[in-house]
Amino acid sequence: EIWVICGVIAAAYVVLIASILWRGHRLRGEVAASQAWPTAASRVVESRMDELVAVKGGPAYFPVVVYDYTVTGRTLRGSRLHFGEPVGFSFRKRADRRLATLTAAAVQVYYDPADPTQVVIERTAPVLRREVVLLVILLAVLTGFLALVAGFVVV
Predict the structure, then answer these.
(1) How far apart are CA 74 and CA 59, in angstroms?
(2) Are 79 and 67 contacting, i.e. CB atoms less than 8 angstroms apart?
(3) Is residue 25 within a helix (H) or strand (E), and if so which, with residue range?
(4) Is 108 within 8 Å of 39 (Cβ atoms)?
(5) pLDDT digits (tens, 9 = 90+) for 28-62
């Protein structure tokens, strides 16, 4: 019976790890593909800081930049900063500096020529760093769990 429980827990971890790896692979592919995307001049329409307050802990600050850009005579509007989900900051001053950097960078945007509505200010995926840390933690927990179970079974 213990092997069934261990198998289910290990399988859940393997599925979770595989999904993180797949997502990372997909994001790295998007970043790589975007290196060939053309640029377009843009104009910042709005820049603001969104604040989310979690039930536990303090607020998280999310820079938001809305910009207009023109592709083949057609004016489009975008707000995507980079690939992956938005990245929040715990400290307001750091978030303000990031917003200033993004607003300055919005002079030029990168768009997908196959679908010009797909646009980013930066051809990066900052969430990948967080996912690598999460992956290492999950692997460490899974390894520790399996070692613990193996120790109980052997004894």
Answers:
(1) 38
(2) yes
(3) helix 2-34
(4) yes
(5) 999 999 999 999 999 999 999 999 887 777 889 99
3-state secondary structure of 31: helix
Separation CA 35–CA 110 (nearest Å) = 9
Q: Which residues contact 94 (CB under 8 A, 6 or more apart)?
A: none
**Distance in Å from the first CA to the final CA of the chain:** 16
Give DSSP secondary structure letters for 65-110: EEEEEEETTEEEEE---SSSS---BSSHHHHHHHHHHHHHHTTEEE
Amino acid symbol at 113? P
pLDDT tens profile 102-146: 888 777 899 999 999 999 998 998 877 777 777 788 888 877 877
DSSP 105-136: HTTEEEEETTEEEEEESSS--THHHHHHHHHH
Looking at residue 56, what DSSP letter applies?
A: S
Would you say 75 and 68 are in contact if contact means Cβ atoms under 8 Å apart? Answer: yes
Amino acid occupying residue 26: R
The dihedral sign for the CA sequence 87, 93, 97, 100: positive
What are the tokens at 61?
């600050």
- To which H or E segment does residue 146 belong? helix 127-154
